[in-house]
């Protein structure tokens, strides 16, 4: 549910909410499961064909690194891709009788006050219609883009910019400020906490596999996979035995090519328990990079020389995961616990992220 940052208490959490789709004529059969433009995966169980272009454009119009897979996962969570969806506030009258009042509307589930602030006339017909996907999806992208920009101003908050933006979209930015991060599970019966986790975990499903990584930098380095950043380095949490996240996650659907970030020699390749299928590479500067949760047995072996951009496997969800992604670490040694922050390391090698 899209909630303005200025709303004092998120309505979705201060009252009972009942979700109801006022129409059951949603069409999600618009394709055979092939990708649209090499970006979104279109078809039954993925993104309805009639919305793929709108979602991709909304993401492309954002200069903050917004993935169309995130927007698609949001829409699935919000309305199941149903432009006629409505959620209701349940109220009780003085006689104890309950009744419903429409609250959030449309494919992106905007409440009226948020739509008044964030709504756009995406199709140029002179009307900002919350139930028109050609208006609502661009508005969703605009709101998420603004939240991402705001989130990047608070690197000390608990959560990646994407996680903070999703929490702001669902609950209102004032709650992100209040908790200095994603609101904890105890907030609003866990609705925002799980909203964020579920969308990030499912976003890769809606992205069609692409060629991994990008162009090589002048130093011979590249991003290890084509995907948006998910859980950041050093995020605190009980999910990790060290008490924090020891790498960065790239959201990438199963089957996306994973490439060596830079030149080096494969230190190890194979099964690694909680990390699933993984590869560890020793680079020329003595540092190590780790690529975890690969879908299949790695395509390289220990002792093999690799160059930056060389494919070493494909992304997946092996080991302890909640969804497909690439877990990437930079280490001072090959063993767990020698991690450093990957982003500054990659930036020093000419990569833009």
What can you tell me about this protein's structure?
This protein has about 350 residues and is α+β, with helices and mostly antiparallel strands. It has 2 domains: about 160 residues, Orthogonal Bundle (Lysozyme); about 120 residues, Glucose Permease (Domain IIA), CATH 2.70.70. The chain contains 9 helices and 16 strands. Strands 7, 8, 10, 11, 12, 13, 15 and 16 form an 8-stranded antiparallel beta sheet that branches. It has a 4-stranded antiparallel beta sheet with strand order 1-4-5-6. Strands 2-3 form a two-stranded antiparallel ribbon. A hairpin with a 4-residue loop joins strand 5 and strand 6. Helix 2 runs parallel beside helix 5, helix 5 packs across helix 6 and helix 6 crosses helix 8. The longest helix is centred in the middle third of the chain and has 19 residues.
Compact overview of the structure:
This protein is α+β, with helices and mostly antiparallel strands. It folds into 2 domains: 49-206, Lysozyme, CATH 1.10.530.10; 229-348, Glucose Permease (Domain IIA) (Distorted Sandwich). The chain contains 9 helices and 16 strands.
């Amino acid at each position: 549910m899209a909630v303005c940052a200025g709303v004092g208490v998120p309505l979705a959490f201060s009252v009972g909410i009942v979700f109801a789709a006022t129409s059951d004529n949603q069409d999600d059969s618009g394709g055979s499961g092939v990708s649209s433009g090499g970006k979104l995966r279109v078809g039954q169980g993925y993104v309805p064909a009639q919305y793929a272009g709108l979602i991709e454009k909304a993401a492309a119009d954002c200069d903050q690194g917004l993935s169309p897979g995130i927007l698609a996962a949001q829409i699935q969570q919000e309305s199941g891709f149903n432009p006629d969806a409505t959620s209701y506030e349940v109220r009780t009258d003085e006689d104890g009788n309950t009744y419903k009042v429409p609250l959030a509307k449309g494919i992106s589930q905007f409440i009226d006050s948020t739509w008044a602030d964030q709504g756009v006339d995406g199709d140029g017909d002179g009307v900002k219609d919350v139930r028109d996907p050609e208006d609502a999806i661009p508005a969703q992208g605009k709101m998420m883009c603004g939240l991402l920009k705001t989130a990047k101003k608070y690197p000390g908050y608990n959560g990646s910019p994407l996680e903070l933006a999703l929490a702001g979209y669902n609950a209102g930015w004032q709650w992100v400020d209040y908790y200095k991060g994603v609101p904890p599970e105890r907030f609003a019966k866990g609705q925002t906490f799980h909203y964020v986790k579920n969308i990030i975990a499912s976003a890769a499903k809606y992205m069609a596999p692409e060629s991994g990584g990008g162009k090589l930098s002048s130093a011979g380095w590249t991003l290890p996979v084509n995907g948006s950043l998910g859980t950041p380095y050093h995020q605190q949490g009980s999910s990790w035995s060290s008490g924090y996240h020891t790498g960065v996650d790239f959201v990438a659907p199963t089957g996306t090519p994973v490439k060596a970030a830079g030149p080096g020699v494969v230190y190890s390749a194979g099964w690694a328990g909680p990390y699933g299928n993984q590869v560890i590479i020793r680079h020329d500067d003595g540092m190590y990079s780790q690529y975890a949760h690969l879908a299949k047995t790695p395509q390289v072996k220990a002792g093999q020389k690799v160059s930056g951009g060389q494919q070493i496997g494909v992304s997946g969800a092996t080991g302890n995961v909640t969804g497909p992604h690439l877990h990437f670490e930079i280490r001072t040694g090959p063993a767990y616990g020698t991690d450093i922050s990957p982003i500054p390391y990659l930036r020093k090698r000419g990569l833009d992220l």
